[in-house]
Structures are given as C-alpha cells and as structure tokens.
Amino acid sequence: xxxxxxxxxxxxxxxxxxxxxxxxxxxxxxxxxxxxxxxxxxxxxxxxxxxxxxxxxxxxxxxxxxxxxxxxxxxxxxxxxxxxxxxxxxxxxxxxxxxxxxxxxxxxxxxxxxxxxxxxxxxxxxxxxxxxxxxxxxxxxxxxxxxxxxxxxxxxxxxxxxxxxxxxxxxxxxxxxxxxxxxxxxxxxxxxxxxxxxxxxxxxxxxxxxxxxxxxxxxxxxxxxxxxxxxxxxxxxxxxxxxxxxxxxxxxxxxxxxxxxxxxxxxxxxxxxxxxxxxxxxxxxxxxxxx
Length: 291
Fold this sequence. Notes:
The chain is globular and about 60 Å long. The protein contains 14 helices and 9 strands. By secondary structure, the chain is of the alpha/beta class.
C-alpha cells in the first residue's frame, strides 16, 4: 500500500468551486482509489484559508491516471508545495467526506460570508471591533494560526524547457510524500528574472537552506541552460550533496561525461529514471539520511 496525499488551496469566496471539485472526485473514484478527501477552513479574520486534501492509494489508482484526470478536468488546480496533511489537520475547522451527501455539511466550515471576505473595507470594520492585534489573537487562539510552509529540504535544478514535463511532476510527487522542495516557480518572481544578480542571490539562498540538490539531466539541461551550471557550482561551494537524474537517453552519454569532468562530480550520485517513476529518488533520499 502506497498512499499519496495531495494538498490544494481552496477559495474562501468561490467556495462552490471547491465543493464541485470534491464532488467530482467522489463521483469519479471509489473509496479504494481515494481513501480520504476533506477540507480544512481557517476562519482567522486576518487571513482566511481553505485547503482541500485528497489521499489516493496507488495500489488501486495509478498516480499518472489521477494526475491526467486532474489536468484534463481541473487544469487550474495546482498541488500546494511544502504544506502537508499533518500541518493542516492540527487545527481549524476540518471535515472529511465519504459520499456526495456528506458534502451538505461543507458550508458549516465557514464563519464569514462570501460578501464580507470579498469586500476588504467591510472586513476591516469587523477587525476594528477586536481590541487584540493579530499576534495576540493567534497566541490566545492557536487554532487560528496561519498555516506555515515547511522549510525546503530538496533544491530542484532543471531547464525551464523541462518544467512542465518533469520538474513539476517530480516536485508534486515529492510533496505528496511530505518532502519539502525548493522550486523556482514558487520562489522567483518576474522582477528576479530581469535582474541576474538578484536571481543569483535568490538561488544561492535557496540552496543554502536545503540539504540536497536534485538535478534533472536532459538534453535541455545540458544544451540550453546556463543557470543549471551555476546551480551546480553553488551546491559545490556550499558542500551540498547532489543527485543527478538521467532518463535512459544514450545520446547524451558523452555530454554527461563532459559535465562530470567539468565539475569533478566524483562524489555526486546518479540515478536513471524511467516511466515517470520517481520512487528511486525517495528511496535514495531516505536510505542516505537526506530527509
């Protein structure tokens, strides 16, 4: 039995969208395939939050099948990185759903109306009624604390051309196994991309907080990206352990050997990945105590 838990951000205002999302999963998959589905709502007036969590059992539902269905029907839904089930179920209003009829209780999770949250001026009037500052409020009522993202453990280096096909699926999978990641999509904004020094500092700091660097080695990685070489250098400067993922492309053998020579990657590890199966990455990280 191998269970994967996907976390999605919900929408306090457009809550019917989340309800329909849950309804679709319940109607599409049986209880052996999806072993758990629920919602957590934090009604903190300073920062309302909604999370949807879905746990699948890969013995009955292949992750690629679930991801394909998700992409086809809910392409706008992105897996939330670095927030895990244990965190969001520690506090707040939480419900799990076993069938469509149980969705009738979904709305009791919410305190504020959609209208109040939609119009900040009106919500500010509510906040002014409280004599406590946010920090005092959350200290007194810890169940209302904003959910914190976990510090990244794994830095993922990749060519931008491989982001959709490899980097995101790998990142999502690691997070379903509760392994926190650093990925440029989450950390780098448009201004950073237009300032090389600013971008370098963001990446340098990102690598510094991680324990490990994973490099997605493809033709794009070896031929089209200058930044990945900078990321290898940064990892070496910081004495980070590195894992290079290859994909059974024999045409890249010579270029990969040149990369090894250029950076003296004698202590780095290499794993060959096939059929979008990233289990070897999980095993490697755990067996080598990198988590």
